[in-house]
Design goal:
Elements: H1 9-14, H2 17-37, H3 43-55, H4 60-70, H5 74-88, H6 90-93, H7 102-138, E1 143-148, E2 151-157, H8 158-182, H9 202-213, H10 227-253, E3 261-262, H11 283-303, H12 315-319, H13 322-342, E4 345-346, H14 348-355, H15 364-375, H16 377-394, H17 398-409, H18 415-421, H19 425-442
Antiparallel strand pairs: 1-2, 3-4
Helix pairs in contact: 2-3, 2-7, 2-9, 3-5, 4-5, 7-8, 7-13, 8-10, 8-19, 10-11, 10-13, 11-13, 15-16, 16-17
Length: about 450
């Protein structure tokens, strides 16, 4: 079982050695077919190669063990493939991997795996976004306090907070669609990117190969132009960071002093080895852990952009473990947040109680606004600041302090205006309107 903060079973299966070899075999079979269609490789040879790629079980242990001496897994894979093709047809063996290089095999296989991994993430992010949209609509008018710099600010609604989380994930989903269209691409250039072995037929073979694999055919080889890999890594970093933000907000709301939100309960979940009374966050911790690790992996992937000449020495090799780790972290965070949101426990009473925790100080902004027409901005602000200090010093409600000074210091302020200043209905309504507008825009 994978570490639930680092990966998922589905993502681990996708990037296991066996899956990587299947993707490499898909490339070699497609290369043979494309070359035959361009009348570069005999059709009979291409058929044998494709059949061996589809029917043979390659020895992953042997191939990846040989990587230590070969420098990459493509070399021992092609050797094994050539031997197996040769057992069936010695002439066909001469056409295995014709015109390609190791990097073509590995990079194109990586693109095939990345395509599948992005589809998995897109599927589960969509599930999360759907649940968040439903919750945001349902809780659009559920009052709670908004917090800035970890301090109570002014009232908002729970739906407003949920919509804020959703807005970030919507942008990530839009980025995913663009990434899928632009970053995924065939890698095919031969030893230095020129496809010289094919002569004038190189572009035609490349187009046909791309079509067989279902990948776009780029205008130029990207052996050492690694922006595609960096873009995928950057998106994974952004998506995982957004998920970590959601998880972090939930963890803060689960604090004993707040107790506004909770992870879905389950037997044996969230307990402490020493303190029987505790109910700790669990799934959200996994998402925060994934988001904490991810920036370092993205940074390492960005460092791989500086690759020398026409084929990289070391920087290309450094990429290999980074993308699978990033995909694992992103999916782990996605599922952790999805599981949490699907069973999110909400305590409106705790939210209402926390709205009163400052004894009315969170309405100081509204009180100031009510007094500005009578005193001007500067004097109203100065006076409310003084009343707030008095309320804190005497541990009294701000409304009582304001009422005690109103007749003498702000005689034009009516009792009704004062009551309205301490009524959060308008602020909650504004939050609800923002939620409604956001959800309407998504339709």
């Amino acid at each position: 079982m994978p570490d639930p903060s680092a990966s998922t079973e589905e993502m681990d299966r996708l990037f296991q050695p066996r899956s990587r070899l299947l993707a490499m075999a898909a490339f070699e079979a497609a290369l043979a077919a494309a070359s035959a269609e361009a009348v570069v490789v005999p059709k009979a040879a291409a058929a044998v190669i494709a059949d061996v790629c589809a029917s043979e079980s390659f020895d992953a242990d042997e191939i990846f063990a040989a990587q230590r001496l070969a420098g990459n897994p493509a070399i021992p894979f092609v050797r094994q493939l050539t031997e197996r093709v040769g057992r069936r047809d010695a002439d066909a063996a001469a056409w295995v991997h014709f015109g390609a290089t190791s990097q073509d095999v590995i990079d194109s296989a990586t693109m095939l795996l990345a395509r599948d991994a992005l589809a998995i993430l897109g599927r589960d992010l969509q599930r999360l976004r759907d649940v968040l949209a439903l919750l945001a609509a349902r809780e659009a008018e559920t009052p709670m306090v908004g917090r800035t710099l970890l301090q109570q600010a002014i009232p908002i609604s729970l739906g407003f907070k949920l919509a804020g989380w959703l807005a970030g994930l919507d942008r990530a989903a839009a980025g995913l669609a663009e990434l899928t269209d632009c970053a995924l691409a065939l890698q095919f250039g031969g030893p230095v990117g020129t496809l010289a072995a094919f002569g004038e037929d190189g572009p035609a073979v490349a187009e046909k190969l791309a079509a067989h694999l279902g990948l776009p055919c780029p205008a130029f080889s990207w052996h050492t132009e690694r922006s595609r890999i960096a873009e995928i890594g950057a998106w994974l970093g952004i998506a995982t960071g957004l998920l970590g933000k959601i998880a972090g907000d939930i963890i803060l709301a689960m604090q004993t002093e707040l107790a506004e939100l909770g992870e879905p309960a389950a037997a044996g979940k969230g307990g402490s080895s020493a303190m029987p009374h505790k109910r700790n966050p669990v799934m959200t911790l996994f998402a925060v852990a994934a988001a904490t690790r991810t920036p370092h992996l993205v940074g390492a992937l960005f460092a791989c952009l500086a690759q020398a000449h026409e084929r990289g020495a070391g920087a290309w090799h450094a990429e290999w473990p980074l993308l699978p780790q990033l995909f694992g972290h992103a999916h782990a965070a996605t599922l952790a947040v999805l599981d949490t949101i699907e069973g999110l426990e909400i305590d409106p009473a705790a939210m209402a109680r926390n709205l009163e925790a400052t004894r009315g100080l969170i309405y100081a902004e509204r009180l100031t606004a009510a007094m500005i027409p009578h005193l001007g901005r500067s004097e109203a602000h100065r006076l409310v600041e003084a009343w707030c200090r008095e309320a804190v010093a005497g541990d009294r409600p701000l409304a009582d302090i304001a009422e005690s000074h109103r007749a003498r210091q702000v005689p034009a302020l009516t009792a009704e205006e004062l009551r309205d200043a301490f009524d959060p209905a308008d602020q909650i309504a504004a939050a609800a309107r923002a939620v409604e507008a956001m959800l309407r825009q998504r339709e």
